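So, could you explain this one?
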Amino acid sequence: MRRALLMLLLTLGPAGAADAAAPRISSQAGILIDADSGRVLYEKSAYIRRSPASTTKLLTALVAVRQGKLQGEFQVSRGAANVTGSSAHLRAGDRYTLRELLEGMLLRSGNDAAHAVAESVSGTMPEFALRMNEQAVRIGARQTHFVNPHGLTAAHHYTSASDLATIARTALREPEIRRIVASQELTLTPVGGEGRKIRNTNSLLGEYLGADGAKTGTTSAAGKCLVASATRGGVHLIAVVLKGGDRYGDARRLLDYGFSEVTGTLRVPPGSRFGRLSDGREPRLVGSLAAPILHAPVRLRVRITPNPAREGGIVGIAFLETGGEPVAVAPLAVGALPDPWYLRLLHRLHPAPVDRNSLHSL
């Protein structure tokens, strides 16, 4: 059977379309990605370790929604109520659901709420920090190491603009996190107490078309930081700027650039079938593929292993290619599909773009 089963060519925009000039930003580090595919559209010192301030709380939230009980009620400890810095004004002894603690943490950037979230999920700060770092490695944020849930400056507490984009991209797939960070105002109500309104610290919400998150952060060591998310016409972008004097202006410039460059997203859904093997079996896509539509054709290519296993499993790969560069890859399988943990392991071991001539780059 021929190895290449299919090539799909999409013509994107007018022939000869030129790339827009890359923006200039004042922040010391920054990155812009297409959230669906993860493709980097712009970067500046994006892989240098930096103090993240309260953008840390995106990873805190991710751990909490995946490992905590959103409806569970927790009592605010004295230690949480006394944390310095930005505050959701929690009082020791008051009880909140984990969902409301997350709202106080993500909207109001409350360090007290972040401390309470960590205690509610893990009991102690060291145990929660361990979970944060495990989660960071699991999602591919390998330049990240956190020692607290709120982002106050500490030794060995660092990340990079690139890792923050990865963290935000993963966190924003969680409906509860996306709901909270997109809200301009919510009511925080302790169990049996009186509610009070809290407003989001992200000034892009309601002012920038399509803005829907994600997190601000400021300390003397980190400077002014911002993780900004915006969606227009099915295109979802994430911009990260660190240590800048004009974080909102920089984020706007990056997002404007992204929306001028990306005209759509090519998506190939899970389970898509790609021809037939010589024995009649139909390879199916495991997972999905996505790539931003830029100023170059996007090709969907398929490569089948020379001798597919008769008992089933992975028999090849499908990948999206633009400008001669593979930008998204997923396995093709027949029969019994591989366990999800196995596929996640492959992606963690091989984070680079797929080698079009190899089945070992899954």
